[in-house]
Design a protein that fits this description.
- The chain is an alpha/beta fold.
- The chain contains ten helices and eleven strands.
- The strands form three sheets. It has a five-stranded mixed sheet, sandwiched between helices.
- Helix 4 crosses helix 5, helix 7 packs across helix 8 and helix 8 crosses helix 9.
- It is elongated.
């Protein structure tokens, strides 16, 4: 996935705080942009002025009087996911991109959302797998423990052939809705991994992830479908965290891929053994049956 730097244009337009609002508006109009970073005589970032600020100010006022002084900045190597999170958290449309003490550009929410939209599955409206890996690396970088739940619809190929792709797509969409309803926004990352496979990344412990997987399996099993069918899921779970020696993004991406692969294999084993949930570890794939009194 591109970083913030990849979306920046090569041109950077700035203005001085003592310039007039009229001049700031003219610069924006000439270059077809909606904001300017405000830089003082020492080259220091002191604010940002947008087309909205200009509309609400008299043309003769100084930029210093019309600009926003509280500027949220971001590093050029940051992910678009981080940029989006900052914009949502601070209710912003723009972030100033800084490398050290130097302003190198401004990134807009429109650009970020357009790029992130490429990583949304058009059928289910869930993230694609790239987002899961992106989030996994972020969490591992912070030293967080992560758990991956891999979910696979049972006998979906047969159902697709028996009832047709239109009904097959409906099953996928409804399953995605059910799974999303059980995840927590901002904590869990749910994606359509491919075909009839889904995956969830969560910073919760392996035990908590197992509980979430059982909830998901049970919810899909309990769904009342319009067709005379019974849909079931097989779930596999794997978890881990960053350890000494994992120093690069590549190391962390490989760890995330390893966990997804282990969870996928556990899901396959669960399907073969006809148990709802399996938890993987490095040595074996132990079967985890539901606690007493809990239906799997």
């Amino acid at each position: 996935m591109p970083t913030v730097e990849d979306l920046l244009s090569t041109a950077l337009y700035t203005i001085e705080p003592w310039a007039s609002v009229r001049r700031a508006g003219a610069v924006m109009e000439y270059h077809g942009i909606g904001s300017l970073a405000v830089i003082d005589e020492e080259g220091k970032l002191v604010g940002i002025i947008t087309s909205r600020d200009i509309k609400g100010s008299h043309p003769n006022r100084l930029v210093a009087d019309a600009m926003s002084r509280q500027v949220i900045t971001i590093n050029p190597s940051a992910s678009l996911w981080e940029a989006h999170h900052l914009m949502v958290t601070h209710n912003l449309e723009r972030l100033v991109v800084m490398e050290g003490q130097q302003v190198i550009g401004i990134i807009t929410g429109t650009k970020v959302m357009a790029e992130l939209g490429k990583y949304v599955d058009s059928l289910t409206n869930l993230h694609k797998a790239e987002i899961l890996y992106e989030r996994a690396v972020q969490l591992l970088t912070k030293g967080c423990e992560i758990s991956v739940i891999f979910l696979d619809l049972d006998d979906f190929g047969r159902l697709n052939k028996q009832y047709g792709h239109v009904h097959g797509d409906h099953i996928l969409v409804r399953t995605a809705q059910i799974l999303k309803g059980l995840t927590v926004e901002g904590r869990d990352t749910l994606c359509r991994y491919g075909g009839d496979e889904f995956a969830v990344l969560t910073p919760q412990s392996l035990a908590a992830a197992e509980g979430l997987a059982r909830e998901m399996v049970k919810a899909v099993q309990g769904e009342k479908w319009s067709l005379p069918i019974h849909i079931t899921l097989s779930a596999g779970i794997a978890g881990g965290r960053r350890v000494d020696g994992m120093d690069t993004v590549r190391d962390l991406k490989e760890l995330a891929e390893k966990l997804v692969n282990q969870a996928s294999l556990a899901s396959t084993t669960a399907k073969r053994l006809k148990v709802p949930v399996m938890v993987a570890n490095t040595d074996r794939l132990p079967e985890r049956r539901p606690p007493t009194g809990v239906e799997g």
